[in-house]
């Protein structure tokens, strides 16, 4: 396994993770220690933006700052709107540091637990040292129409990453039981 960032600890989060070459999408986040089911892996601390801000051409990324830490965001972490994580019907958080490299999988081992404006990635099953940390992007996506081809390669691959309401009902229920579907998507199903 070829790793791009070695033994870097960013402030007080992302400990136990490393960015390495991934079969899914060039680079990915891998565990450097074991994570137990329901154990927090990382919390997103990036800039909060609305749907309108995210899709504008205003160049608002150039002056981005870390949410809560007020430090300047490195340039290479602010290039692509597709990496933003939806945390509300109209609210997104910018992934920073390792978060930027967390890949999608239709068979995830982690998921975002969103409470208010805080998104914490948790293990939804035991993750062993050396395993890639992957989540199902669709769990947080709410009616914004963004899509991408899936390259996860899992046996249950859905081939497209789309809004939560497009994933199979049984899988939606499983994700809801795991606690990794935000309230705005749970209410959509009622």
How would you describe this protein?
The chain is mostly beta strands. The chain has a single domain, classed as Beta-clip-like (Beta Complex). 11% of the residues lie in helices and 27% in strands. It has 3 helices and 13 strands, in the order βββββαββββββββαα. It has helices at 51-54, 169-178, 183-188; strands at residues 3-5, 17-22, 26-31, 40-43, 48-50, 85-88, 91-93, 103-104, 110-115, 118-123, 132-135, 148-149, 160-161. Strands 1-2-3-11-8 form a 5-stranded mixed β-sheet, with no helix packed on it. A 3-stranded antiparallel β-sheet has the order 4-10-9, with no helix packed on it. Strands 5-7-6 form a 3-stranded antiparallel β-sheet. A hairpin with a 2-residue loop joins β6 (85-88) and β7. The chain is globular. The termini are far apart. Residues 5-13 and 59-81 have low confidence and may be disordered.
């Amino acid at each position: 396994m070829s790793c791009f960032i070695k033994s870097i600890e960013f402030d007080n989060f992302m400990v136990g993770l490393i960015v390495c070459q991934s079969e899914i999408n060039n680079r990915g986040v891998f565990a450097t220690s074991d994570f137990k089911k329901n154990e927090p892996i990382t919390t997103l601390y990036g800039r909060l933006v609305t749907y309108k801000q995210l899709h504008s051409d205003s160049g608002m990324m150039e002056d981005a700052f870390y949410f809560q830490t007020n430090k300047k965001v490195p340039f290479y972490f602010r290039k692509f709107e597709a990496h933003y994580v939806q945390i509300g019907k109209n609210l997104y958080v910018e992934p920073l540091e390792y978060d930027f490299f967390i890949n999608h999988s239709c068979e995830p081992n982690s998921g975002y637990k969103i409470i208010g404006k805080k998104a914490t990635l948790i293990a939804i099953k035991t993750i062993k040292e050396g395993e890639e940390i992957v989540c199902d992007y669709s769990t947080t996506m709410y009616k914004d129409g963004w899509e991408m081809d899936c390259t996860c390669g899992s046996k249950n691959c859905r081939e497209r990453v789309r809004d939560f309401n497009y994933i199979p009902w049984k899988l939606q229920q499983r994700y809801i039981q795991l606690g990794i579907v935000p309230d705005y998507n749970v209410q959509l199903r009622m």
